[in-house]
Amino acid sequence: MSSAAQGLRRTGSARRQPARPAWRERPKPATQAAKAVALAAVVLLVTVPFLIIVSTSFASNAEVVANGGWVLWPQHPTLNAYRELFDGGIVTHALWVSAGVTVIGTAASLACTIGLAYALSRRDVFGGKPILLLILFTFLFPPGMIPGFLLIKGLHLLNSYGSLVAPVLVNVFNLVVLRGFFQSVPEELYEAARLDGAGEWLILRRIVLPLSKAALAVVGLFYAVSYWNAWFYASIYLDSDHWPLQQVLRTYVVGGSQLADSAAGDASAVAAPQTIQMAVLVVATVPILLVYPFLQKYFTKGVLTGAVKS
């Protein structure tokens, strides 16, 4: 066969090869530009409102009035709003309440969720399937407000901080995630530990929990954010002297209430209502923003943990 014929055959076979998948092709400049514009728009939609909240909390009364209640960049920043918040005592007390409920509630929820998820992940546990079905039933058909109130009243938890933890002690979604992760741990590890004489408690503490750091970080973050942002149960079960920060925030921002112990005397030292509201928003948001970076490395790995079994 001549070289010309071989060249034609190679050319024909090359043309018959399937095209590369779309996700392996290099994006066109127009596509890259469109993605950059879309990403920039999303970033602006997220950062600009937060910047306005922070800037307004530091703005002076004259700047708030001149800009119609919102300040993008204060020319004369002041801490009057934050002084008024923490000098009054209401927000300080509410902040301690939220911190305590978040820390204690997250620890209690993690302990209960880990124990229940580990028990339900074992095949030989007595009554595992019926208990799991009952738990999933509560997820599909949650109780209403009146049964929950009657339960809290029957447990004598009205006007106590236990009423903020007891109704949400175990979240079904978090339980299912942890159960799925515990089931994905190789069975050979459990068998090897049992051959060495380890009991279930030792297996959970020495083997399962060290392998579950990513899942525990994600579930713990979910619980912490839930407890920190909770305000509904506080409005039902607690009086105003025991309110957490989020309920105080809702009262100031939504209800338009003012601080009861506001600074008196010099009118220039009293912050405008808008700066008070924005300062409360900043105080309520910053703690979660400070905690999240330390858990970010676990979040991406653990957010899908339990959804796919290895």
From TrEMBL:
Transmembrane segment boundaries: 36-59, 94-119, 131-152, 164-182, 214-234, 276-295
Gene Ontology cellular component annotations, sorted alphabetically: plasma membrane
InterPro entries membership: MetI-like, MetI-like_sf
Pfam family, one: BPD_transp_1
CDD domains in UniProt: TM_PBP2 (cd06261)
Alphabetic keyword roster: Cell membrane, Membrane, Transmembrane, Transmembrane helix, Transport
Name used for this protein in its record: Carbohydrate ABC transporter membrane protein 2, CUT1 family
Organism: Actinacidiphila paucisporea
Organism classification: Bacteria, Bacillati, Actinomycetota, Actinomycetes, Kitasatosporales
